[in-house]
């Protein structure tokens, strides 16, 4: 059962237009699909995770409450990160939460973020190539990238050879109510990735 704090935070997010107008329960269930993807690999919760493009707080707020561990919520828009900081100051919010305003291409190179995270989650962040490039430097070796996928299976969205070149191994798609794609970091990220702000989207790797 979701806490009063979480429901209040998500209702406020929806009221401000950061989430869609639909009911919250399916959106919470979708967020918990990221938990199931992690549990497929590990019996212990991640020591620290990052929600990439956290926006209105999904899945980041749900995961933070579920695991009660260290977490970072990253978004490039001030109005969204201001909202996240606001709700994380409310009574009942999980502790050990950090909110960062910035572009992933820049933040990933900072010493406190480079190779730090056990898990990076992405919901509606961007196409596969953009998400992989922007996420990979955040991960420690052995860390997982879990990406929400379109409801209908689409072939050839992920290029295994190019993913390997930036340090990721493709573990494939899974379903936990919704569709997800799981990748693991197996080698160090070459120093040129991620490329400068905006380049991953303008010139995707695949």
Please tell me about this protein's structure.
- With about 210 residues, the protein is an alpha/beta fold.
- The chain has a single domain, classed as Rossmann fold, CATH 3.40.50.
- The chain has eight helices and seven strands, in the order ααβαβαβαβαβαββα.
- The longest helix is centred in the N-terminal third of the chain and has 18 residues, at about 25-40.
Descriptive labels:
7 strands, alpha/beta, globular, 8 helices
- What's the helix-strand series? HHEHEHEHEHEHEEH
Total separate domains: 1
Strand order of the largest sheet: 3-2-1-4-5-7-6
Briefly, what CATH class?
Alpha Beta
Q: Judging from the principal axes of the Cα atoms, what is the shape?
A: globular
Biggest pleated sheet:
7 strands, mixed
| CATH fold descriptor | Rossmann fold
**Which second-level CATH architecture applies?**
3-Layer(aba) Sandwich
In whole angstroms, how far apart are the ends? 40 Å
Number of strands: 7
The computed structural class is: alpha/beta
The mean pLDDT is 96
Q: How large is the radius of gyration? A: 16 Å
Helix share bin: 25-40%
DSSP summary: helix tally? 8
């Amino acid at each position: 059962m979701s806490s009063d704090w979480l429901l209040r935070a998500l209702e406020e997010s929806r009221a401000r237009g950061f989430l869609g107008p639909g009911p919250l329960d399916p959106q919470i269930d979708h967020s918990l699909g990221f938990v199931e993807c992690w549990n497929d690999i590990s019996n212990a919760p991640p020591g620290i995770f990052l929600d990439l493009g956290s926006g209105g707080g999904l899945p980041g707020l749900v995961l933070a409450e579920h695991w009660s561990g260290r977490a970072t919520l990253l978004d490039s828009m001030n109005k969204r990160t201001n909202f996240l900081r606001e709700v994380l100051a409310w009574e009942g919010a999980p502790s050990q939460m950090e909110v960062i305003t910035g572009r992933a291409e820049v933040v990933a190179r900072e010493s406190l973020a480079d190779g730090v995270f056990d898990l990076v989650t992405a919901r509606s962040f961007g196409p596969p190539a953009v998400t992989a490039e922007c996420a990979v430097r955040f991960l420690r070796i052995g860390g997982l990238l879990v990406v929400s996928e379109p409801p209908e299976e689409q072939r050839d969205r992920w290029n295994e050879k190019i993913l390997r070149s930036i340090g990721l191994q493709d573990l494939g798609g899974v379903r936990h109510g919704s569709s997800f794609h799981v990748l693991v970091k197996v080698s160090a990220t070459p120093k040129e990735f991620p490329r400068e702000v905006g380049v991953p989207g303008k010139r995707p790797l695949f």
